[in-house]
Structures are given as C-alpha cells and as structure tokens.
C-alpha cells in the first residue's frame, strides 16, 4: 500500500520573469563608479557575465526611473556595493527596495559588498 503524506504544503509562488542579466550592480556612483565598481564590472564582463551597470548618460530622470526596476527584475543576481554614502542616495535606496522585493518573491541571490 502506497503511503501518502498530507503534511506537504503546495508551493504557490509566482513564476519568475525571464532574465536578461546575470548580475545587477547597485552602487553609489560618486563613491565607486570610477574605482571599485568599474573594475568589478569589467572583470565580470571579461568572464562572460552579462552585467547591468547604469550609464551616467542615462541619469536623466524618467528614462532611468523606468529602466532600473525593469533591469532589477530581469537580473538573476544582485551585487550591492555598500559604500560610505550609499544610504544617502534615494536612487540607491529605491534600487535596494526593489532588489529585496525580488529576493523575497523569487529567491534571487543578493551579494553585499562592504566597501
């Protein structure tokens, strides 16, 4: 006689959207854009890791405000570079909220880097 367990709870999680990016880099531009984050970005690209890093030319309000949440949702992994002024940026905090939402909903990997 086959035994059946009724203690298992079914999983009703929302399916994760398709990913475009392997990694989304979240960082405070004035702290690390041309130093640590730039080196990290180039190293990831050299190894074939599709990495989203905002472009200074995109920082014109509405365009970036739509592009960032979409890029976050379409990323598999998040690297958050927590620098001295990271938390003083509303952009960074908005990114972090979206990253944590994706972590909670889709169990995506978040890697904090304390810079």
What's this model, at a glance?
It comes from Daucus carota subsp. sativus (Carrot). Keywords: NAD. It is built from four helices and four strands; from the N terminus they run E-H-H-E-H-E-H-E.
Verbal overview:
The protein is of the alpha/beta class and 115 residues long. It has a single domain, classed as Rossmann fold, CATH 3.40.50. It contains four helices and four strands; from the N terminus they run βααβαβαβ. Helix 3 runs parallel beside helix 4. The longest helix is centred in the C-terminal third of the chain and has 17 residues. It is globular. The N and C termini lie far apart (59 Å). The N terminus is likely disordered.
Chain-wise SSE layout:
Elements: E1 21-26, H1 29-32, H2 36-46, E2 51-52, H3 62-73, E3 75-82, H4 90-106, E4 109-114
Helix pairs in contact: 3-4
CATH class: Alpha Beta
Question: Can you count the beta strands?
Answer: 4
Indicate the proportion of strand residues.
Answer: 15-25%
Strand order of the largest sheet: 2-1-3-4
- At CATH's second level, what is the architecture? 3-Layer(aba) Sandwich
Which homologous superfamily in CATH is the superfamily?
Toll/interleukin-1 receptor homology (TIR) domain
In sequence order, what are the helices and strands, one letter per element?
Answer: EHHEHEHE
What share of residues is helical?
25-40%
Largest sheet: 4 strands, parallel
Please tell me the overall pLDDT.
85
Termini separation comes to: 59 Å
Report Rg. Answer: 17 Å
Keywords: NAD
Pfam families: TIR (PF01582)
Protein name: TIR domain-containing protein
Organism: Daucus carota subsp. sativus (Carrot)
């Amino acid at each position: 006689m086959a035994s059946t367990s009724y203690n298992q709870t079914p999983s009703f999680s929302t399916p994760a959207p398709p990913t475009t990016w392997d990694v989304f880099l979240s960082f405070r531009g004035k702290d690390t854009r041309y130093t640590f984050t730039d080196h990290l970005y180039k190293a990831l690209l050299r190894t074939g890791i599709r990495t989203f890093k905002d472009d200074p030319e995109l920082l014109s309000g509405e365009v970036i405000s739509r592009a960032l949440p979409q890029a976050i949702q379409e990323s598999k992994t998040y690297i958050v570079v927590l620098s001295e002024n990271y938390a003083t940026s509303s952009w960074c905090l908005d990114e972090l909220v979206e990253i944590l939402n994706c972590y909670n909903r889709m169990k995506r990997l978040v890697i904090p880097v304390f810079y």
